[in-house]
């Protein structure tokens, strides 16, 4: 159990990151596996999208490693490129190796290119940038998407604080 000082320190780091717009907090593979294993039956025969996930994403690794076991219809990942050049799209279908291609845009989930991908897929699973959490959640609600967001619980509290400011 973390001490009060450790909790304050984590909270301060998240606050500082939010202010500095440093949103790259990676979710550990073991945390993804522990949580996603509870929802395995919901993933069966679904098109899964991980829209905020680079090439080293634990989400993509989990779903690629468990693709057949989960009986996925497809797995798509979107990698954002903050440097202004194009992002990438990772796509896997049953019985095939993953295909990685360049996007037209940087891979921002708000771009028309990525919005079309979101519209076409069944379930969104990721750890979105927490400074954009509220916007991301509104987008999922607008398109009536099933979703599973995995991240630090403090992200939710900071998102609430940001929305009330």
Question: What are the salient characteristics of this protein?
Answer:
6-stranded mixed β-sheet; 8 helices; 16% strand
Q: Using only CA atoms, what is the Rg? A: 16 Å
End-to-end separation in angstroms reads 31 Å
Number of strands: 6
Q: What would you call the shape? A: globular
Tell me about the biggest sheet? 6 strands, mixed
> Percent of residues in beta strands?
15-25%
Overall domain count: 1
Low-confidence stretches: 13-22, 158-165
Find the structural class using helix and strand composition: alpha/beta
What topology, given as strand order, has the largest sheet? 4-3-2-1-5-6
Give the topology:
Elements: H1 4-20, H2 29-36, H3 40-43, E1 47-50, H4 58-65, H5 67-70, E2 74-79, E3 88-92, E4 99-102, H6 112-120, E5 123-126, H7 133-142, E6 146-149, H8 153-164
Parallel strand pairs: 1-2, 1-5, 5-6
Antiparallel strand pairs: 2-3, 3-4
What report would you give on this structure?
The chain is α/β, with parallel strands linked by helices. The chain has one domain (27-164): Rossmann fold. Helix content is 44%, strand content 16%. The protein has helices at residues 4-20, 29-36, 40-43, 58-65, 67-70, 112-120, 133-142, 153-164; strands at residues 47-50, 74-79, 88-92, 99-102, 123-126, 146-149. The protein has a six-stranded mixed sheet with strand order 4-3-2-1-5-6, sandwiched between helices. A hairpin with a 6-residue loop joins strand 3 (88-92) and strand 4. The longest helix has 17 residues, at 4-20. The chain is globular, with a radius of gyration of 16 Å. The model is unreliable at 13-22 and 158-165 (pLDDT under 50).
């Amino acid at each position: 159990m973390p001490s009060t000082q450790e909790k304050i320190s984590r909270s301060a780091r998240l606050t500082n990151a939010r202010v500095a717009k440093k949103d790259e907090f990676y979710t550990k593979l073991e945390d993804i596996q522990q949580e996603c294993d509870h929802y395995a039956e919901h993933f069966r025969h679904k098109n899964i999208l991980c829209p905020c996930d680079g090439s080293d994403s634990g989400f993509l690794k989990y779903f690629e490693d468990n693709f057949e076991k989960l009986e996925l219809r497809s797995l798509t990942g979107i990698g954002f490129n903050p440097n202004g050049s194009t992002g990438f799209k990772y796509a896997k279908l049953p019985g095939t190796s993953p295909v990685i291609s360049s996007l037209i845009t940087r891979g921002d989930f708000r771009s028309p290119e990525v919005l079309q991908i979101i519209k076409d897929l069944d379930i969104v699973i990721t750890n979105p940038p927490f400074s954009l959490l509220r916007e991301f959640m509104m987008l999922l609600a607008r398109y009536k998407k099933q979703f599973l967001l995995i991240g630090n619980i403090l992200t939710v509290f900071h998102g609430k604080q940001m929305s009330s400011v």
